[in-house]
């Protein structure tokens, strides 16, 4: 069985900025892998590298044995981008965004058939967005927007899902809902790579975790990667507890 995600010695630069430096990472099928790291550590770049959206200086990527672009064209890999990377003013309805997940299943003329419309309706139901299907995507809350992109991946029926900060800017209720959705997708045997700042989410959601800082600093069971010594290497020393104020 081929690995779901296989990145070998990938180096990516944006001009003078070294975003990824010799990253090697394998995620087996059916696993949920948490991608951790500070701002600017290269998480979003790693997702784009897997998808073949940024050129690599060096290295090799395979998704279920195919290159990123081929995996994308065949609808094998779904992507929930970081919110900052989406043009929310773009005049599309929630339903249209979810239908984009079906493009890989349609012919060249992108004509939606009954099966496509049913897949979209089902994905909207699973993400509790049916009522909001005709709303413009920008008119949703942060959590609803994330769910709309998860719905797109569900409609796509992608075996591998890349989720860039799905918990950023969402309220507690949406957070719980998204976690539950992701755990279901895992039960269905899909592979998930999920970046998050919310370390508290990791043990409940992830089978394994990767700590990134241009390079892979650690990769293993969440309890190992979340050890203070390991985290300190990436996030710096924790804030000292304040001395209690002296009162006479
Ligand atoms: N399009 C770009 N052009 C130039 N620099 C970029 C671009 N995208 C990201 N970077 C830089 O690459 C580094 C990694 O960024 P990114 O992958 O977005 O990290 P993260 O998602 O972990 O915050 C950062 O230093 C960032 O400023
Ligand atoms: Mg990012």
Please provide a written account of the structure:
The chain has 248 residues and is α/β, with parallel strands linked by helices. It has one domain (5-235): P-loop containing nucleotide triphosphate hydrolases (Rossmann fold). It has 9 helices and 9 strands. Helix 6 (172-187) links the parallel strand 6 and strand 7. Helix 3 (94-100) packs parallel to helix 5 (142-156). The protein binds adenosine-5'-diphosphate and magnesium ion.
Keywords:
3-stranded antiparallel β-sheet; binds adenosine-5'-diphosphate; 9 strands; binds magnesium ion; single chain
Question: Which helices and strands occur, and which strands form pairs?
Answer:
Elements (H helix, E strand, L loop, with lengths): L4 E10 L2 E11 L4 E5 L6 H9 L6 E6 L4 H6 L3 E4 L13 H7 L13 H13 L15 H15 L3 E5 L7 H16 L3 E5 L6 H4 L2 E6 L1 E6 L1 H4 L2 H8 L13
Parallel strand pairs: 3-7, 3-8, 5-6, 6-7
Antiparallel strand pairs: 1-2, 1-4, 8-9
Magnesium ion binds next to helix 1.
Task: Describe this structure in a few short sentences.
Helix content is 33%, strand content 23%. It is of the alpha/beta class and 248 residues long.
């Amino acid at each position: 069985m081929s690995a779901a995600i296989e990145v070998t010695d990938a180096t990516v630069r944006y001009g003078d900025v070294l975003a990824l430096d010799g990253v090697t990472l394998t995620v087996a099928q059916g696993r949920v892998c948490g991608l951790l790291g500070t701002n600017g550590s290269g998480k979003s770049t790693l997702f784009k590298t897997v998808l073949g959206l940024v050129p690599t200086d060096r290295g090799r990527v395979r998704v279920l044995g195919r290159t990123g672009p081929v995996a994308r064209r065949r609808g094998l890999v779904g992507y929930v981008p970081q919110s900052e990377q989406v043009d929310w003013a773009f005049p599309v309805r929630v339903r249209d965004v979810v239908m984009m997940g079906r493009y890989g299943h349609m012919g060249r003329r992108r004509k939606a058939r009954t099966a496509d419309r049913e897949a979209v309706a089902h994905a909207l139901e699973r993400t509790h967005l049916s009522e909001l299907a005709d709303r413009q995507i920008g008119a949703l809350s942060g959590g609803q927007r994330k769910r709309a992109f998860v719905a797109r991946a569900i409609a796509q029926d992608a075996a591998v899902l890349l989720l860039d900060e799905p918990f950023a800017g969402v309220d507690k209720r949406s957070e719980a809902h998204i976690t539950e959705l992701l755990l279901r997708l895992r039960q269905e045997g899909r592979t998930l790579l999920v970046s998050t700042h919310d370390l508290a989410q990791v043990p409940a959601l992830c089978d394994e975790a990767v700590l990134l800082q241009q390079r892979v600093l650690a990769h293993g069971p969440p309890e190992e990667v979340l050890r203070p010594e390991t985290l300190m290497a990436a996030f710096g020393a924790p804030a000292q507890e304040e001395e209690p104020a002296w009162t006479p």
